[in-house]
Write a structure and sequence with these properties.
- By secondary structure, the protein is an alpha/beta fold.
- It folds into 2 domains: 126 residues, Rossmann fold, CATH 3.40.50; 204 residues, Dihydrodipicolinate Reductase, domain 2 (2-Layer Sandwich).
- The strands form 3 sheets. Strands 7, 9, 10, 13, 14, 15, 16, 17 and 18 form a 9-stranded mixed beta sheet that branches. It has a 6-stranded parallel beta sheet with strand order 3-2-1-4-5-6, with helices on both faces. It has a 3-stranded mixed beta sheet with strand order 8-11-12, with no helix packed on it.
- A hairpin with a 4-residue loop joins strand 13 and strand 14.
- Helix 6 packs antiparallel against helix 10 and helix 7 runs parallel beside helix 8.
- It is globular.
- The model has no long low-confidence stretch (mean pLDDT 97).
Length: 366
């Protein structure tokens, strides 16, 4: 089978794309990068050189050029969420396959419009990178539940500290401080987390009597990207840093989710996720809640009530040769090549609707 020819939007010399997307795309015979589109042609050329891409790779600065290039089969977009619409809309209108990071759009309305463009353009494969939903750890936890390891699932609690969203933020991430940009702790951190929670325990969510979303730090300190120099001691922040959610999954399992900004308690995990059953309990811990990225210290433990034994459970990583951020993304690409979509635009719009509902339940119009 011929390799899928990729036009990549947002492959800068720093950031997420080189860590998460590039390793698999450069090592797999199933994909070939044929074009780069950054903010300037010079930036695109610099990335082509920096990552040792062939000299035949085209350098673009306009998403329209990517959309009009007949040699591109798949457009991959890894830019800030508030730039998703402008960068992928031309390719959707041109009928090209698209893979874009989560969130799909900066808000529900934008996500719905992108879905409309996808349908009108007759796009066959439109993928949103909610990569944790088919991650090896998700499969392992589901395997434990399906095999009856803890009996009937009774409830689940999930508690996380986001790391970001604390008292300070580096300049490269200051957009997270603005709610209307659409990329923040609620949409990104909570959005990814609630998705892998439901990938394990079942989709569908009936929100409980009261959700709390709050911005408890309306001003924060802006630091340079080395986190050494204060650029602004009172940067205004409109995005939220605290979320408390309770409800019931479609599987009738009661659940509580608590996520806050800032570092975890010293010496304690940044993620503590428990699934209680009639015959035992599963505990998942990690230094942070970003299981879609991966955590080197992540553990899955099972407490068997009958024997009172505690056992750590391992799992196999299909792409163990790659660094952690690239592994789950590699799985998305592998599935796509096989004709299976990790998360469709339709799925992503449902995620956006759920987040909109969570905001609304907390009295916030976002």
């Amino acid at each position: 089978m011929a390799p899928t020819r990729v036009g990549f939007i947002g492959l800068s010399k720093v950031g997420w794309a080189p860590k998460a997307h590039l390793p698999y795309l450069q090592s797999s015979p199933d994909y070939e990068i044929v074009a780069i589109c950054n903010s300037t042609v010079e930036s695109s050329k610099a990335s082509i050189k920096a990552y040792g891409l062939p000299s035949s790779v085209k350098a673009y600065a306009n998403p329209e050029d990517i959309a009009n290039d007949k040699d591109i089969d798949l457009v991959v977009c890894s830019v800030r969420v508030d730039r998703h619409y402008a960068t992928i809309a031309p390719s959707l209108k041109a009928g090209k396959d698209v893979l874009v990071e989560w969130p799909l759009g900066k808000n529900l309305a934008e996500a719905e419009e992108l879905l409309k463009l996808k349908n009108e353009g007759g796009v066959k494969n439109a993928v949103v990178d909610l990569q944790a939903r088919q991650a090896p750890f998700v499969k392992k936890i589901k395997e434990l539940l399906d095999s009856g390891t803890i009996g009937k699932v009774l409830s689940s609690t999930w508690t996380g500290a986001a790391g970001l969203g604390g008292a300070s933020i580096m300049a490269a991430y200051q957009y997270i401080a603005k709610r209307d940009v659409g990329g923040n702790i609620v949409t990104i951190h909570f959005g990814h987390s609630i998705d892998y929670i439901q990938a394990v325990l079942g989709y569908g969510f009936s929100i409980g009597p009261k959700t709390t979303i709050a911005n408890r730090r309306p001003t924060i300190t802006l630091l340079d990207d080395d986190a050494k120099t204060i650029l602004n001691p009172t940067l205004p922040k409109t995005s939220d840093d605290t979320i408390f959610l309770t409800g019931t999954l479609a599987s009738s399992v009661p659940i509580s989710v608590s996520l806050r900004g800032g570092a975890p308690f010293k010496g304690q995990p940044g993620l503590d996720w428990r699934i209680a059953g009639s015959e035992g309990e599963i505990r998942i811990t990690a230094s942070g809640p970003f299981l879609q990225i991966g955590s080197p210290d992540m553990k899955i433990e099972v407490h068997d009530h009958a024997s009172d034994e505690l056992k750590e459970v391992g799992w196999e990583e299909e792409f163990a040769a790659l660094e952690l951020p690239a592994r789950n993304v590699a799985s998305v690409y592998k599935e796509l090549k096989a004709g299976r979509i990790n998360c469709t635009f339709e799925d992503a719009v449902e995620r956006h609707r759920f987040i909109k509902e969570v905001y609304r339940d907390s009295g916030i119009d976002a």
